[in-house]
Amino acid sequence: MTFQLRREEILDGERLRAMLEESPARAAQAILIAAREGLLDAQALLGQILLDGQGIEQDQPLALRWFEIAARGGHLMARNMLGRCHEHGWGCEADTSVAAHHYRIAADAGLDWAMYNYANLLATGRGVVADQSQALDLYRLAAGLGHAKSMNLLGRYLEEGQFCPADPQAAREWYRRSAEAGDFRGQFSHGAVLVEQGRLDEGLVWLRLAMVNGNQRFLQVSAQRLREASDPALKCLAEEYARHEQTLFG
Length: 250
Hints:
The protein is an all-alpha fold.
């Protein structure tokens, strides 16, 4: 497919996202034009591709600047990304209190990702006073909006009875929903539940899917957990996890 950079298409946020998949460098040019024209989606996208170095030279301070511009215009994901930048020190000095400020603004406006990120700070007391009850409330709100990672964490609270009555049945349901929504930790949680229920073959499918989707730290921790299992199939899967981690990350 050849994209024609007509002005009306350049200023279409969905068109820009499609172009990113087809031709990142060409899309970056269109995104820059649209951002300068004032399209909020394009401004937020420009921040993201500058942050990632996707189709354009990576420039974290400039990414931060574009997130700030889009956030001032009311773009909630850009506001959330400002929080991410300040939490992790991307283009600025890391400051979790500033990150919490941005997350809270976007969370109060209804953005599920910001609810999740703000809840993570509340749960760990980073940049804010620790408040597990408020963190749980935010995870619950984000899960209700379909946020896959929050679904898995809500399941964990309910399984362990942390700051709420234990409800194993509800926990299993949230794990299933998280898994089906694509979160690798939810896929592992759901797979582990199925194994515990004696549904080994079904469980292994989800545990392998978690392996394919997981990051390096997850693969390392999960491999150790699987090595400690009594079932030989799970011990074998632990070695699959280790080989996969080695292949991806060396």
